[in-house]
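Final report, Chapter 2: Outcomes

The project's central promise was a pipeline that accepts a single protein chain and returns its three-dimensional structure in a standardized token representation, suitable for archiving and comparison. That pipeline is now operational. To close this chapter, we reproduce one record exactly as it appears in the project archive, with the input sequence first and the structure output second.
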Amino acid sequence: MTSSPLKATGAYALDTRWVRRSFDRASATYDASAVLQREIRSLLLERLDLTALTPQVVLDAGAGTGAACRALKTRYPKARVLALDSALGMLRGAAARRSWFRPFFNVVADAARLPLADGSVDLVLSNFMLPWCEPDAVFAEFRRVLAPRGFLTFSSLGPDTLKELREAWAEVDSHSRVLQFIDMHDLGDALVRAGFIEPVLDVERYTLEYADVRALAQDLKAVGARNATAGRLKGLTGPRTFARMEAAYEVHRRAGRLPATYEVVFGQAWSPVASVALPDGAAGISLEDLRRQLPTRRR
């Protein structure tokens, strides 16, 4: 029996206009505050060393200010690299990273409705875009545009992300204050539903430290990672309410610093050689098995 699609309802329902607006506004402050995003981007690029790809077309989905696009163009100088983002402000920042001898191309679009032809892309990389999307819709589009034996590599955030902040707000009220993040296993199921094969997923946990909660809140706003839950409270939070949350967060303070946990999900998968339906219960393979098979993946 196949798993059920991840519907963007209830706690996971997103206000997509607010998502686009938040990232658009953050375009000027993103690079200075995107510490974790830079680290994970570097790791995604390093993991490409494990593949034997010579892509002609590369898609960076959720490209932000284009740092990964520049690195991808350096890695694959003969490839056509596409920087896709729904936030125009972010792509304006990406345009500043382009050089005349290593250009890439900006595409303003929703990842769930890619303006690309079927089978036209060889590699899709996506860093931290999935938490702001409906995975089933996005994976279906990635699968559609990937050529046979195309490769998808991505990062996302798991449910333990910002657990300290979520717990602190829970002490104050029952409203949706922090975005809900989807579990690694559910993302793996979504990959299989979309028709990908040999999915490999793993999790790493990172902790950023802050002097106080306000510094954390400023960082989240600076990178556009604001609560985009459709059922969130709209309007400003009063100072007394925020102060109560600050006090609740203090139980986590260690050595004078407040931690913010990030559960980072890494995923990769291949599009099949031919468009065939996967049998029920199709499973992934281990990263070690993937490494052993890499020499056979050359085109």
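Archive annotation: The longest strand covers residues 197-210.
This record, like all others produced under the grant, will remain available to the consortium after the project formally closes.
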